[in-house]
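Structure in, sequence out. Go:
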């Protein structure tokens, strides 16, 4: 249960840091499961290279299919020009997504339960719908930058309700690429949605593209704050909050797990890339 002070801080700055939200046992279980999924993954079967700098790399049927599956995505620097792995497989994966929370028993247990349901209610999420789960590896040395963005660009609802649940599975530090966020950057003019990632249905599986909405500049690390946290910490943040993480050039990985939830009472855009079929309907935290 959040205190009135915590609720006020969330409204004011756009995020809340909750140390110790998950126990060491909980984080160890999902870290182990993530590494087992990578171990079982056959790179030759084809995965998509993931880069936030060139989203056309992932604008393919595999990303769209991952809405209802568990797929591994390569780190951009893990492959050479011919698509061959240049690092060991265990260090080649950028992320796993995007239906772990509904399809994998270990991740499902981590992603649901009364503590999360209560937190979501305290943050004002009505009939929460958890659309996406991702394990983000931020691999040692090659873990890529995630440029400034707002998560609402990927989960448009009317009104905007998307809320991010960012779990540190390992310590996140300045050296290995912790989150950075702009205090109050979700509010007023500064919180204007700058771009929107849309799925244009134009025959076949269609096409994914980032649509600019505003010329408002992104914050920088000069005006933002770093959010170094210990493993087990949950950072929840508003969908309009601009955030960023630096590349990881350190020898230590920075595993994180994220969930994105919207209000079931807000209209979810049919242009969002992530859609669920009747076979796997979107569910909440319970
Ligand atoms: Fe994000």
């Amino acid at each position: 249960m959040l205190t009135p002070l915590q609720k006020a801080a969330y409204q004011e700055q756009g995020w809340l840091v909750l140390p110790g939200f998950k126990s060491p046992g909980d984080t160890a279980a999902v870290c182990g499961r993530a590494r087992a999924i990578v171990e079982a993954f056959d790179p030759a079967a084809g995965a998509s290279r993931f880069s936030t700098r060139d989203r056309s790399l992932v604008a393919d049927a595999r990303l769209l299919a991952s809405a209802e599956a568990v797929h591994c995505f390569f780190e951009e620097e893990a492959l050479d020009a011919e698509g061959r792995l240049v690092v060991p497989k265990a260090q080649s994966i950028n992320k796993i997504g995007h239906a772990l929370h509904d399809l994998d028993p270990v991740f499902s247990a981590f992603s649901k339960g009364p503590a999360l349901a209560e937190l979501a209610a305290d943050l004002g999420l009505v009939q929460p719908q958890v659309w996406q789960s991702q394990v983000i590896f931020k691999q040692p040395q090659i873990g890529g930058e995630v440029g400034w963005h707002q998560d609402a660009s990927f989960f448009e609802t009317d009104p905007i309700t998307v809320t991010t649940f960012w779990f540190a599975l390992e310590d996140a530090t300045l050296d290995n690429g912790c989150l950075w966020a702009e205090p109050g950057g979700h509010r007023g003019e500064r919180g204007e949605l700058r771009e929107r990632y849309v799925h244009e249905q134009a025959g076949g599986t269609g096409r994914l593209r980032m649509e600019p909405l505003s010329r408002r500049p992104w914050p920088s690390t000069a005006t933002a704050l770093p959010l170094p946290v210990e493993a087990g910490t949950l950072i929840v943040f508003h969908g309009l909050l601009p955030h960023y993480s630096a590349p990881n050039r350190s020898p230590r990985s920075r595993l994180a797990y994220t969930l994105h939830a919207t209000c079931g009472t807000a209209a979810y855009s049919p242009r969002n890339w992530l859609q669920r079929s009747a076979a796997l309907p979107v569910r909440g935290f319970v």
